[in-house]
Amino acid sequence: MNSTLGDPIRVDDYTRRQLLRLGIERVSDALYYFPRSYQDRRNIPLISMLVPTQSQFATGAIEAVQEEIAKNRLSIIKVQIRDSSGRLELVFFNQAYLIKILKVGLWVVVSGKLDVQPFTGTRQFIVAELDVIRNESDRLSSVGCIVPIYGLTQGVYQSVVRSAIANILAKVDHHIPDHLPQTVRDRLNLMPLSQAIIELHRPSRPEMASAARQRIVFDEFLRFQMGMVEKRQVARREVSSVHLSGQNELTAAYINQLAYRLTDAQSRAIRELVSDVTSGYRMNRLLQGDVGSGKTDVIAVALLMAVGSGYQAAVMVPTEVLAEQHFRRFCGQLSAINVEVFLLKGGQRSKERRNVLEKLATGDPLVVVGTHALIEDAVVIPRLGMVVVDEQHRFGVVQRMKLQQKSTAPHCLYTTATPIPRSFMLSVFGELEKTIIDEMPPGRLPADTQYFPLSSQRDVWNLCRYQLQLGRQIYVVYPLVDESEKTDLQSAIQGFELLKGMFDDVEVGLVHGRMTGNDKNDRMTRFKQGVIKILVSTTVIEVGIDVPNASVMIIVNAERFGLSQLHQLRGRVGRGAYKSYCILLGEKTTKMARERINAMVTTHDGFKLAELDLKLRGPGEILGTKQSGLPEFKLGDLVNDEPLLHLAYRVARKIFEQDPELSASDHQPLAQWFRRYQSFSPEEVLN
Length: 687
Fold this sequence. Notes:
Helix content: 25-40%
Radius of gyration: 32 Å
Distance between the termini: 30 Å
Strand content: 15-25%
Oligomer: single chain
Number of domains: 4
Largest sheet: 7 strands, parallel
CATH superfamily of the largest domain: P-loop containing nucleotide triphosphate hydrolases
Shape: globular
């Protein structure tokens, strides 16, 4: 915006103090302080036309004001107002401060309900909202129009904010430059920026406010997507000092030793990795695949691209249980082709840890699997050529960056088994190249998912007895560790004691997040070995646990889990050759619970479930806004405005394809707007 719109607001001291409490200091702040809702006051009825019990507006001049104190010391203010059709008594409860504001002669606009006493016929208007009209400016902004309702803080009045913003709009409406090229606006049928801002604050018709919002939301998404597209262009041009052979003896040996053929989706993913690491530029790719789609094989090939080229490779995972599982799997598969694999985690014996650190420091080609321990300053990996961050959304950006900085610009592969909705993909990972493994290995049968109310637990335990007789194993997952006085949800410890008594002929184990790492690993190892037949757990087993003999997943109080989490837990079974079951045990007490459980029973598509989860719970609750790196928009909504998000991405990509430097004359205003408000960094985007 130009300097005029960036100037401080020139108002009286009282109004300035009120606006500052809302963060409104400059003209541009006021223009972009959009209403949270609207009230249609175009046709306020006369007092004589008011209808009892119905929410409505009324307006009139104050003729009398009096305060009464009830027995419970509650203040009741009664105000007599009059218009051309008659009088009306307004009633305000517990708002004694209004005595100083409501003066005879002033006009007011109120919203509320008309109450008519059944015996006396007395008419009283119980006030919910009040606007005092002190001057002509207040009248123009409060009566006979669609009125904006702004978000306020205590001590700030609607009338003050409304009047101040209306005055600012009147002064600058012809001085708001439009950064969006006319050709783009015409093609997308978007409103000019000045008109959009005015219509959002003072809609001429309800549908105009909707069209205006669409323009502002598009701007918000476009600015963010331009940043993403530009970062991707920069990343594509980042020359890599790590030169890998995408196909070498080790990658070929690994694929040849597999007892099964790679799926077409896995092969396609590997080809994309080969293209990246042999391009001369640094790879920065997200590998996404549903539970059981075969990401681990693709990860292994990526690691061998580095080791087979004389470099080191590191895999960082969020938990020790998952680190040990990856370590054991890679040891089993890679030792056969003479590749050394090491494990680094917290709590290792000093001698074992020292041996790993010394081996890493030599720079010899190898694979190291670890937790956050990999990013400690004492860990030196001088020839790091490939970084894999598994379940990457569980790490903060600083942690991921520290691992990459162990060497000079290694290739980076981020992976996740959590299906990510398309809008998240664009808004959080827009600057990454993406590979999606959208095919399951042949022969993998989806778990038979069924819902049982808690009252039908006996049927569920009978199924468990039958599966145990067949030699299978069982997960039972609870939402809590301990019994809580504030909730009737069943806890893992309670369930453990119950199942020990119910199944006294087999070993029942317990795993939860409060246990030490050694204890958790011991229980998981015993379960994987088949010693423990029933594993009672919290969601600590949600990610990465691979026990092919486990055929039943029981989720107690399933209504308390998100869809993506339920889908992840379901993915722990059906990993072998046996028919598997996912039992959702709980109560469908709310509409959301019914929708969530019904979706789990009817579909196994993780991406469809993720989209529904996003709609049911919203972005922040799924990933946690702080950790997810989701951008904050004034008006834009990643769920409801998803089509605009995708449109903005396509427009941003086309703009940079046609004019990478934004140097064309019709892109100059766009470039200035984009550079001025481009306030995020790659670290913030990935956080």
